User: What shape does this take?
Amino acid sequence: MFKCKFADKIQLFLEQKRNAGAVYQTSSYTLIHFDRLVAEQFPEYNTITQAMFEAWLRTQEHLSTNTLNRRVPVLRQLSRFMLGFDLNTYLIPDRIASHNIRY
Assistant: This one.
């Protein structure tokens, strides 16, 4: 399913979340999209970098602030998980926008 160099870590992260009782259905789509981007644009990297995250953000520019702020935490959780394997992993910030839009 996952294709980048750290695909095994993404799969392990996803399994850990599901074993803990999280459904992680929608979040898995975010992970799949991130994995594809990394496999295509950063095939030689074996951990998350700031450049990867910024490239992913550029693909999300069409989204509202609220939607983006719901998608970023899954990547942050993945980056925190991967810090246990590689201290050079970029720790993704909690939120991109400082506030959500009220409707």
Remarks:
- The chain has four helices and no strands.
- The chain has a mean pLDDT of 91.
